Amino acid sequence: MASDPKMHTFEEVAKHNKTKDCWLIISGKVYDVTPFMDDHPGGDEVLLSATRKDATNDFEDVGHSDSAREMMEKYYIGEIDSKTVPAKRTYIPPQQAAYNPVKTPEFVIKILQFLVPLLILGLAISVRYFTKKE
Predict the structure, then answer these.
(1) Alpha helices in the chain (DSSP H)
(2) CA-CA distances (angstroms) from residue 43 to 24, 29, 74, 91, 123?
(3) I want to staple 23 with a disulfide (CB 3.0 to 4.6 A). Which of 16, 38, 112, 121 is the partner?
(4) Bridge partners of 26?
């Protein structure tokens, strides 16, 4: 590694997000992984999906080997200026309408399961009453 690492801004690193020019931010360090794109076991899509953000979590979640971590050293090009990295946003789920059991298909089926036998019973009684001979 260089004795005096170059500082990169997040905006500068985010511009390098193509197959022929790919930089990643991992653990506060910047790596130019362009030469490794064709050799990455997960394919270049995995690396491209980690651009324009701090890819530390993506990298750690996979569980890379010690040799993979050692290999990173030859792609190291500097440090990221932590003041330029956007704050992590917390996920806010979209607002959903309140669950209304009266408007569900299950409710309609339950109503029909109650009404259809009543209608059949009513029809049977009507037929019996009007066809009865006195």
Answers:
(1) 10-14, 44-49, 56-62, 66-72, 105-131
(2) 15, 22, 19, 28, 69
(3) 16
(4) 29
